[in-house]
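Field log, afternoon session.

UNIT: design team B
ACTIVITY: writing a sequence onto a fixed backbone
BACKBONE:
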C-alpha cells in the first residue's frame, strides 16, 4: 500500500516551512482591513434596511414583503457590526503580540 496520502483538508502549512516567523504587523494590517470592510458592510446593509422601511410605507400592496426584507437586512447589519467588532479585537491581539515579539512589554501596575 502507498504510505503517502494526499489530503485536501488535513494539510498543515507549518510542516512546509517551520522556520518562517509570523509577521504580526502584516496580520494587524489585514485585520484592520477586515474590520473596515465589516463596518462598511454594516453601513450598507443598514442603509438598505432603511430603504426597505421607506418602501414599505410607500407601497402598501407589497408592504409585508418590504418589511420582511427590512428585517433580514437589519439582522445582516447586526452581524456585520459583530464581525467588525470581532476583527477589532483580533487586530488588538496582533498588535499586542507584535509588541511582545519585539520586546515592548506593557507593565500595568494599576
Amino acid at each position: 500500500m502507498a504510505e503517502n496520502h494526499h489530503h485536501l483538508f488535513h494539510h498543515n502549512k507549518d510542516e512546509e516551512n517551520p522556520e518562517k516567523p509570523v509577521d504580526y504587523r502584516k496580520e494587524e494590517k489585514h485585520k484592520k482591513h477586515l474590520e473596515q470592510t465589516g463596518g462598511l458592510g454594516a453601513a450598507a446593509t443598514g442603509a438598505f434596511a432603511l430603504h426597505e422601511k421607506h418602501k414599505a410605507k410607500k407601497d402598501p400592496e407589497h408592504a409585508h414583503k418590504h418589511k420582511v426584507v427590512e428585517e433580514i437586512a437589519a439582522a445582516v447589519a447586526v452581524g456585520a457590526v459583530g464581525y467588525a467588532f470581532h476583527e477589532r479585537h483580533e487586530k488588538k491581539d496582533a498588535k499586542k503580540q507584535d509588541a511582545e515579539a519585539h520586546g515592548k512589554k506593557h507593565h500595568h501596575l494599576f
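LOG NOTE: The mean pLDDT is 83.
NEXT ACTIVITY: expression trials, pending approval
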